């Protein structure tokens, strides 16, 4: 670390309100992780109560290497409770990858003001993250590419692994540059659901993106094997809230392959609903008047999945690449509840769930000496709060709090021995 005085109160140079999320055009010269502007967070719904919250907009990249601006929150622990380490090492950092909220700008975790369909989901990890701050660790929370900063042409590329990894990792660089000397080299990656999948991809890309310092990665109920789920859903003659994910998957596929034509992937009925994804939360997309009201078998053009057209072939190719079976060279911990109905531990053949993902990761990373620490929680163990909206969120989100103590101890051990 530098001998200079650590920066813990950087200049506030970000505009007020949602103008903050409008990147300057062109973007300032620089490299991924360079802060564009920052200010103290004035959104109580998004803030973590146990620390000092900063809203940041920084340079990042899409999967083709084009410069983009990505938003997020960086939180330092309470300095009265946790002064900077005397040895000059700086605060350890946990970079958090959030779960599915949709692709509309207003549902981005830093931008959500507590009055959206995504608000319960965005608030659900706050207990875990406040616990990290109370251990004396800093926390960084990316919004992902084009979530909060998106445009009609630039959609958040949902579950696109390299894009998510850029967001999760570049905010680490932004934190180190914005709070020079106050944020240390040691960092961990933790995520839930979409963010669990993003966390695994980020751990894979970390060596070339950030360099040294990553101590481990933890994924709670990580999204996995989406191709099989989408293809199976396309044969379902019933309606259901799960079909709200179809436009999100398509947005992710377009991020990886812009030549895909939504009009060649979707039926006319589904295509008429496609613009809603830009303006509704995932929860609102699940409503009967939206994607939740269209049968899976009525969503895809032609005889998909049996005989996909060329655009659907490319769509499938992108979905297949979203499974987070990737090489990782640091300790890996995965938590999965057996009775989670959103991300499944196991599914009937040929569908695959988290159990199979763990086997895949163990096989892929055996050469690195890595074996996943798999916390598979038996049915009826995770306690779901019976008050709304926590009750509605179910086991999938309740697993975050259930695992919080053990997960925090696991990260603590990694930081201690870093």
UniProtKB/TrEMBL annotation:
Annotated spans, Disordered: 288-312
InterPro entries: AB_hydrolase_fold (IPR029058), Lipase_secreted (IPR005152)
PANTHER family: LIPASE 5, PTHR34853
Protein's UniProt name: Lipase family protein
Organism: Kitasatospora herbaricolor
């Amino acid at each position: 670390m530098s001998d200079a005085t650590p920066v813990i109160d950087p200049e506030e140079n970000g505009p007020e309100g949602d103008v903050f999320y409008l990147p300057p055009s062109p973007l300032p010269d620089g490299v991924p992780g360079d802060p564009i502007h920052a200010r103290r967070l004035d959104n109580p719904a998004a803030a973590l109560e146990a620390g000092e919250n900063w809203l940041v907009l920084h340079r990042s990249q899409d999967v083709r290497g084009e410069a983009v601006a990505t938003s997020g929150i960086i939180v330092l622990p309470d300095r009265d409770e946790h002064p900077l380490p005397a040895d000059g090492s700086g605060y350890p950092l946990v970079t958090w990858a959030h779960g599915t909220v949709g692709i509309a700008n207003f549902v981005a975790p830093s931008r959500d003001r507590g009055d959206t369909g995504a608000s319960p989901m965005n608030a659900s990890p706050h207990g875990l993250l406040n616990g990290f701050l109370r251990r004396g660790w800093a926390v960084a929370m990316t919004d992902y590419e084009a979530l909060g900063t998106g445009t009609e042409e630039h959609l958040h590329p949902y579950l696109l692994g390299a894009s998510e990894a850029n967001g999760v990792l570049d905010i680490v660089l932004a934190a180190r540059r914005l709070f020079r000397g106050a944020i240390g080299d040691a960092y961990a990656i933790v995520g839930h659901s979409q963010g669990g999948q993003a966390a695994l991809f980020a751990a894979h890309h970390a060596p070339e993106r950030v360099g040294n310092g990553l101590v481990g990665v933890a994924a709670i109920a990580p999204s996995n094997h989406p191709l099989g789920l989408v293809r199976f859903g396309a044969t379902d003659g019933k309606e259901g809230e799960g079909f709200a994910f179809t436009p999100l998957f398509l947005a992710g596929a377009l991020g990886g392959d812009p030549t895909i034509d939504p009009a060649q992937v979707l039926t006319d009925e589904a295509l008429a609903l496609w613009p809603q994804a830009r303006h509704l939360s995932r929860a609102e997309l699940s409503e009967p008047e939206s994607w939740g009201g269209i049968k899976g078998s009525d969503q895809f053009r032609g005889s998909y999945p049996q005989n996909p057209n060329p655009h659907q072939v490319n769509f499938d190719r992108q979905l297949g690449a979203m499974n987070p079976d990737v090489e990782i060279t640091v300790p890996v911990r995965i938590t999965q509840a057996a009775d989670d109905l959103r991300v499944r531990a196991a599914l009937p053949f040929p569908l695959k769930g988290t159990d199979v993902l763990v086997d895949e990761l163990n096989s892929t990373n055996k050469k690195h000496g890595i074996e996943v620490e798999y916390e598979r929680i038996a049915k009826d163990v995770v306690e779901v709060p019976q008050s709304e909206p926590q009750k509605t969120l179910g086991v999938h989100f309740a697993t975050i709090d259930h695992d919080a103590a053990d997960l925090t101890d696991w990260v603590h051990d990694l930081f201690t021995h870093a």
